[in-house]
Amino acid sequence: MCLLSPFTLPTDYSCWLGLPTGMVSIVCATLYKVSWEPDPCCKYQVEYNACELSRLPLSTLRTSAPVVLVRRDDTSRKRLHNVIAMTALAYCLRKLFELYTD
Fold this sequence. Notes:
This protein has 102 residues and is mainly α. The protein has helices at 5-8, 11-35, 50-54, 75-101; strands at 44-46, 69-71. Helix 2 (11-35) crosses helix 4.
């Protein structure tokens, strides 16, 4: 929203919507970086793919609805999230600079 507001809103309003949403993006990225990223459990996700589940020997289990966790590499998603947050930071800094220099 922060990066799209200059293209969709009039110039007078894009700053007032872009700055708060940019700050929220930066805070969320920072919070994720310090709290969840170091946790090794965040690498595991529930497997829903029926093709992958059919290859596992689930018939030997006693439960009727097993939950299968798979370790997945989410480095590209984290990088994309950080790039978007850094772009939002640059946008917010530029807008703040423009506000205070005018």
